[in-house]
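Teaching assistant's notes for section 4

Start the section by putting this record on the projector. Ask students to predict, before seeing the second block, whether Carboxypeptidase-like regulatory domain-containing protein will look compact or extended. Collect guesses on the board.
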Amino acid sequence: MRYFTVFLFILLTHSAIGQTDTLVTKIQGTVVHSQTKLPMNNVHVINTTKVRGTITDGNGFFELAAKANDTLLFSYLGFETIKVKVTNDWIKNKTSKISLTEKAYALEEVIISKYNLTGYVEVDTKLIPVSESDYRYSISGLDAGYEAGSKSPSAVTKVLGAIFNPADFLYNAFGKRPKQMRKLKEMKKDDTIRELLATKFDRETLAALLEIDKDDIPLILQNCNYSQYFIKSANDLQILEAISSCYEEYKILKKNK
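Reveal the predicted structure now:
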């Protein structure tokens, strides 16, 4: 009986610890400038584990649902993006202070091209240069097609290869990343994340959210036959939509294989 009591105590203690580690709660914090120590408002705070986000208020304050070992990403234009792990001490104390550091830029020359837009689509589309070499192939049964990037024979061969060997073509992009790709729908639902990605062109935030290397993003888009022009010029939200669209195609093709 004594041994049974000891065993039961250990079991309940282990269960309680496990529940504490997985307990989702509201954590709070304040984001400040690393040098001035002043609070920073409108800083994007993203829980990359739960794929949920918020922004700081005028006092640099934020509140977000999280649990121990979740990763929070802090992003603000002109400042270094950082990732912070949620600890049990943070959850216990309820609040924490996060410092952001300004980026160091070495900018020699900036050239701004001006377009005198009229507001009429038919006119403005002729004023803004468009790459004539970029185009997409449509595939019956799919909402979107494949952007070949050029009209060269090699581009056509690549796209046709994608159509007739869809599993081999897209497996390299998504087959080894099922966990990360399942986050795509959640990312698209969160307005805070969408707002942040619409202002980004560096792929750092998107890579952090998908838990992949930043250099893998161009490779994924190349495997999905997006042109180099699109890969280089699109903002992170457009990149997210492109990867999501291609992933949906991959699931359809894989299902019908």
